[in-house]
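haha ok so turns out i had the wrong file open the whole time. this is the CORRECT one, sorry everyone. sequence first:
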Amino acid sequence: QVQLTESGGGLVQAGGSLRLSCAASGRTSSNYNVGWFRQTPGKEREFVARVSASGSKSYADSVRGRFSVSRDNAKNTVYLQMNSLKPEDTAVYYCAASWVGSWSAWGQGTQVTVSS
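then structure:
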């Protein structure tokens, strides 16, 4: 079992940057995919970005070109670099892990607030 812990959230002005981290503990071999998701009150959790075990990456249209996902397998950590932040990026950000099929391990979330 893998436990995930997000960090790096906070308050930033529009146009600013933040880097979120997702640290894995427990069964920490690197053969799992990691996704970033976000959720605002009253809305469903939405996909933001993903990095596979092999390193391939994908992004939601709303963040492509502004956000970048990367992983450091030696540190068992996945990062989400968020640039050119907009007020609509305000949300609780979660990371999740999958091995085969669905996202089966989730972190507790970290709040990102972008002021206008």
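The chain is about 0% helix and 55% strand.
again sry for the mixup
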